[in-house]
Amino acid sequence: IFSYLSNKEIDRIIKSLFNSDSEDFANTIEKMSDCSTYEDATHILDSIFKYARIKPHSKDAKLLSDAVAKYFNVHI
């Protein structure tokens, strides 16, 4: 999933969705990478957005969602 994001995008996502907690971000990405389906990974995404109180269509949320979709080879 990391390979589908630039360093700048990762920094933005960590700041806006993970309250600047890079360890939490890394653990979450690892959990999503371990999912067997895109649907399983989107459940994790949904909980991230709810916790961060961010709309799933915000720019940073979309960056992360798109990277996860590309990782699972899903076309949105």
Fold topology:
Blueprint: H1 7-17, H2 22-34, H3 38-52, H4 59-71
Keywords:
4 helices, 68% helix, mainly alpha, single chain, 76 residues
Put the structure in a nutshell.
The protein has four helices and no strands.
Structure description:
- This protein has 76 residues and is mostly helical.
- It contains four helices and no strands.
- Helix 1 packs across helix 4 and helix 2 packs antiparallel against helix 3.
- The longest helix has 15 residues.
- The model has no long low-confidence stretch (mean pLDDT 93).
Q: State mean pLDDT (0 to 100 scale).
A: 93
Structural class: mainly alpha
Give the CA-CA distance, first to last residue: 16 Å
Helix tally equals 4
Percent of residues in helices comes to 55-70%
List unreliable stretches of 5+ residues.
none
Oligomer: single chain
What is the approximate shape?
Answer: globular
Measured by DSSP, the beta-strand proportion falls in: under 5%
Q: What does the radius of gyration come to?
A: 11 Å
E-strand count: 0
Biggest pleated sheet: none
> SSE order, as H and E?
HHHH
